[in-house]
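input
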Amino acid sequence: MDIRDGLIGSIGNTPLLKLERLSQQTGCNILGKAEFLNPGGSVKDRTAQYIVEDAERKGLLEPGGIIVEGTAGNTGIGLTVVGNARGYRTVIVMPDSQSQEKKDALRLLGAELILVPAVPYSDPNQYQHVAQRLAEKLRRESAAPVLYADQWDNTANREGHLANTGKEIWTQTQGEVDGFICAIGTGGTISGVSEYLKSKSKNVTIGLADPLGTCMYHYFRDGMLKATDGDSISEGIGQGRVTDNVAGAVVDEPFLITDEEALPVLFEVLEHEGLCLGGSSAINLAGAVRLAKRLGPGKTIVTILCDSGFRYASKLWNPNYLAQRQLPMPSWLEKPVSRDISDVLK
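output
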């Protein structure tokens, strides 16, 4: 019998999907790792699992314990579903600017959700700093063990992707992978996957897809932390500092990806391949197209399909939101069809 061990056993081993339209357009095999199929709905389930299991091995968590994290949403959701499965309470601090769908999901799952204003990392009231102070406060006041997950500087994040995600990609492609590319949020995915793939073949090209307004493009291209002009509607990606997970990343080809470039790719993938994906996946897909063009026809490029577009219905897939920002939108949202039932039945 093929039976997985509950929710924890269903994390990972996601399929690789061939993206037919993008492959045809570039002459490459462009493959997406379907991380939206994880039980919590995103690649961050892997991060949550490995952070929790690492803490358990170190004796930092036991049933009845509390997990505290600052997150744009998906890591909080991952920690909450993993925490529920392992007997932990979760307290999540999140910027109030994130999508309503992620806020609703956290509350539905039973997390204690604390919303704070979206301010720069330099501000002491930025959500990561608030989460760390809250964890310290709970440690002083609670008899239960308290873990500050710290997905940015906790290298269990990277180690999980090194142990599993990178290995899965290599196995699924039978070692026939020429390039891997994704964005940086914490740095765990790109650092873990790049380390594994480079250990198998030095010829694998690692690309970075960076949205506007963050520092990773210039960091890997020029060696300096300089933010690019502009901004992005993507959530959960983009970094302004070298986290402990970013420090382990290998990047050969950094690309700067605008929303204007990424969104049409996202809409095309839904219209022609049925995949409804989120904003970070849009940046990754546009990056995969760029890397494919850089490497030339006949190559196999892998990227991460981070989460579902249903988590961003109120923003990324909202025609009013897109129109206010003068961003591209799909034709079916631009001119929605609304018909009376009497017209349909004529």
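quick obs: The first strand starts at residue 16 and ends at 18.
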